[in-house]
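S1.2 Input.
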Amino acid sequence: MTLNGANLKVEKAGLYDITLTFKLAQGSFDKNFSYTAVCTQESNLPEEMYMIGEGIEGWGLEDNPSQAVAMHPFHSQPGCFWAIRYIEAGKGFKFSTVNTKWGSDFTDLGNGTGFTVAGGNCSVAESGLYTLQVDYENSKVIVEPAVIIGMDAPFGNGGWDKTLEAAKFTINGKLASKTAVAAGNIRTFVSCTLNGDWWHAEFVPKDGKIVYREAGGDPEAIAIAAGQTLTYDFNAGTGVIK
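S1.3 Output.
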C-alpha cells in the first residue's frame, strides 16, 4: 500500500472483511500501513454474458462458440451487462452466461421488456439498432432502441449533459454517426435504462475498432477535428473517423 497508489484489488468477486492496520513508525507510508482482505461470501453473479441466435450471429455454443457474442459489463454494476446490435424483426435470440454449452441460456428471466418470447426465443417486432441489457441479480432483461450520445466540445456538449438532444448520434440502419462541431477528444456512451451513470457504458474508436471501457479506467484520448464524422457499426465492431 502506497500513498496515492493503485486501488486495492481482490482475486474474485464477493463480500469481504477488510482489516487495515496502522503501525506508528518512522519511514515511508507503505511501511506504516498494511491490510488483509478475507472473502466471507463469494458472489454468485456471472462475470460474463453472451447473446446467441439467428438475430445475432447464430446458435453456436457447443458447435460453434464464436457465434456467441459477448456483452459488456456495466462499470461498477456487478451482474449487469449491455450490448448494441442491429436485429432484424422476427429473428430469434437469447442470452447465456457461458459460451461453450447449453443449459445456462435464458430469455427474459421472468421480467423482460421491449421484446416478445415465443418458442423459447426472444424477438423484436421491428428491425433496428437496439441496446440489449441484462440485470442478472434483479432478473431483468431490457431491449430498447439504441441512443448514443457524445460528450464535451466535439459534440456540442460542454456541459456533459447525459440527455442533450443535440448530442445524440443519428441512427441509420446498422450505423450510428455524428459530425464533430469542434476539435477535442472523443467520449461517447449509450444512454439506456440500466446505465447507472454515463461512463458506466462508455466506448471510443481506436484504429478503426470500438474499444469498450467496461470495468477499466478513462479511455485513451482519441482526437477528432471539427467537421469530421464519427461512425460506429456495432455489429461489425468498427468506429471510423472521416
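S1.4 Remarks. DSSP finds one helix and 23 strands in the chain.
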